[in-house]
Automatic annotation (TrEMBL):
PROSITE patterns tied to this protein: WD_REPEATS_1, WD_REPEATS_2, WD_REPEATS_REGION
Protein name: Uncharacterized protein
Domain of life: Eukaryota
Gene Ontology CC: one annotated term: transferase complex
A Pfam family this chain is assigned to: WD40
InterPro entries the record matches: WD40/YVTN_repeat-like_dom_sf, WD40_PAC1, WD40_repeat_CS, WD40_repeat_dom_sf, WD40_rpt
Keyword field: Repeat, WD repeat
Swiss-Prot/TrEMBL WD repeat ranges: 16-55, 58-99, 120-152, 230-252
Organism: Paralvinella palmiformis
Coiled coil: none
UniProt-listed CDD domains: WD40 (cd00200)
Signal peptide: none
Amino acid sequence: TTQSMADSLATLFHTIGAHTSDVTAVAFSNEQLASASSDKTVRLWSLEDYSEVPCSPLCGHSYNIHSCAFSPFGTILASCSTDGKCILWDVKSGEKLGTLEHKNNTILFIVHVTFSHRTFDGHEASINCCMFSPDGAFLISGSSNGDLRIWDALYGTNRNLFLELEAHDLGVTCCDYSPTYGSAAKPDNNLSCQVLLMFATAGFDHNVKLWDFLSYIGGSKVELSHRATLKGHEASVMAVSFNPSGHILASG
């Protein structure tokens, strides 16, 4: 069955329940897992035993936290909120290193862009998430209509390379690439296409889905192939994140 296949691909091995409201974002470093919430806190967890670290929770935002991200070396965590602030935290001590304020608008995402801007137009509903592939060649976006689109981020025009109309019944909320393919679900052998990496999405349908990102011979065609649906949440899933090795996926 589909569920037994999903069970063989990924195993639920730990559940963390400490936030008093919705979990809105999760992020991995090599040593820690960060979880952000509508309860205005960020909590830090040790990857050794998934216990909460002594300096957690991190309190400083006055409204819902929407996003969090570790610095490349995992020593600093950034969190952003409806209060218009992006706070930088020392993850060892829990101290605030600085606060960046956006006075007029809510900060929803923390991103890093290194090239000139380009606009992609195609979704007919609110875009809830977007993510560059690790090499920066592709961009995947998901909307409240439940569709996923792949875009050529390097040379493409305003036309999506692939469209998945019904990724999630009630809308896509978040997404993440695995940095490596990982061992949780090994790629199928197929001479006509190459599995570039694994992609995870989540939605208001309470589900997390795993996708193979496929590139066909010559690179003229790319697509997402549904691999498994992971069930276990009893409410909307608002955040997914792979750890740096690609072997663990956190969802909240």
